[in-house]
Design goal:
single chain; 291 residues; alpha/beta; six-stranded mixed sheet; four-stranded antiparallel sheet; globular; disordered N terminus; binds adenosine-5'-triphosphate; transport; ATP binding; nucleotide-binding; ABC_transptr_urea_ATP-bd_UrtD; ATP hydrolysis activity
Amino acid sequence: MRPVQPQNSNGAGPPPETAGHILSVQSLTVSFDGFTVLDELDFSMEYGEMRFLIGPNGAGKTTLIDVITGKSKPDSGRIIFDGATDLRRRQEHQLVRLGVGRKFQTPAIFSSLSVYENLEVTLGFRAKITSLLGGHRRGDADRIQATLEQVGLDRRAKDIAGALSHGEKQWLEIGMLLVQEPKLLLLDEPVAGMTRRERERTGELLQAIGNDRSVLVVEHDMEFVRQFARTVTVLHLGKVLSEGPMDMVQQDPEVIRAYLGHGKTKRTESGGAANQNVAGSRVGVQAVVVE
Ligand SMILES: Nc1ncnc2c1ncn2[C@@H]1O[C@H](COP(=O)(O)OP(=O)(O)OP(=O)(O)O)[C@@H](O)[C@H]1O
């Protein structure tokens, strides 16, 4: 099910350049102390799309999410969300209400509360107080239960969140975003530090979430990206270097060059140790190695 696209106040639909896009970043420039991090960046995502954002260290991936969520301010450009709202004019705390959920790399959960209470608190203190009095706001309990099942934590609902494994904490935090029913979910390296099994389950979870929401995932783990990505955007020096299916993107000579820096390259039979860039990060290049 795809979310219904918004109409302008005159009912004529979204501006033509943003039609069909949950997010439309236009000519976005961000600089820190005179150093340009995002350079007139154009980037867009369609409704109900799951997109992976990759790129070498320092490419500007986190900065893009910071600007979308109001954590950093751009020098110029526009960020149109849901066809009409310019996010540049919004504060960080307003984003949840608008329908943008962000997850940082480290899980931010309430360790001393139960899994269930974490979701309950996220839904708002009104729900918490109501539950202390013996009831829930109508629909909250159902929403919490559905979210617990979606993130695979229904059997751990009564457990203290601090006792969860690293992967389970990440799923709980994803659940804390989902329970707020965001239209766009922004996830920064969601599988960092996870076991192989946890990565698999996270990939399946993201695909399920991507069926009815838009999801932007910043990720360095290229094995994970290859397995679960539909469309990939490669950011380099604050611009989109390449975009498309992973198979296509990882063959792009520009992408190979960007990841491997200025080292001399040669073809190899397979990946293995070649899947390291000059800074030591795993990259999406299987057939090239720096000598
Ligand atoms: N608040 C800030 N002040 C100054 N410089 C910053 C700030 N935030 C980011 N930068 C710089 O902007 C550049 C891009 O950083 P960013 O974190 O967006 O890259 P990234 O693509 O997410 O990299 P990584 O994959 O290593 O996380 C880096 O050179 C970084 O040092």
